[in-house]
Amino acid sequence: MQFLGKRAEWWSFAGDDEDAAVARALAPLRAAGDDDPRARVREPDLLGAARTLVDLWRSIAKPTKTLESMIDAGQRWLEQPDADPAEDFRAACLLVLTKEMAPRDALLPAKIAASCARRSRRSAMGRRTPWSSSGCRA
Predict the structure, then answer these.
(1) Domain span at 6
(2) pLDDT tens for residues 119-137?
(3) Are 78 and 50 within 8 A, CB to CB?
(4) Do residue 15 and residue 49 come from a single domain?
(5) Residue 100 sits in the same domain as residue 64
(6) Residue ranges of the alpha helices (H) in the chain?
């Protein structure tokens, strides 16, 4: 039913001139400009932020395997400035997002805070764990 409703909506929008209807539908997009915003992923501010993020990940004393792979991916992305804009944009997104384009759980502030709190408690109790010198700061 939803398909039929959308189809009827389109035909009422299109009227007798489908080309004019397409032009009306695309006009707001054209007003935004013709340049591909994915090409701007290499602007200095974003590059600086990506370098800072990779450096921060590297400062963790004992990174997990997941974090090690994220460090490698970040470094590869920073070293390949001439990639296809679509692939380059996707690779930049995957530094902080999952393949489904959702935020990586490991990078969510609440998850980081909880992890640091657990590690601080273990350290305060004098227990040495693989995560004791994780790079979490109070």
Answers:
(1) 2-34
(2) 777 777 765 554 444 455 5
(3) yes
(4) no
(5) yes
(6) 2-14, 18-31, 44-58, 65-79, 85-93, 109-124
* Successive 10-residue mean pLDDT values, the chain, 138 residues: 59 68 72 75 92 89 84 93 85 88 81 75 65 48
Q: Per this entry, what is the length of the chain?
A: 138
Q: Is the pTM of this model over 0.70?
A: no
Identify which of 137, 138, 118 has the alpha carbon closest to the alpha carbon of residue 129: 118
Q: Which single residue is written with the structure tokens 């590297």?
A: 58
Same domain for 45 and 100? yes
Residue 103's DSSP bridge partners are: 97
State how many domains the chain has: 3
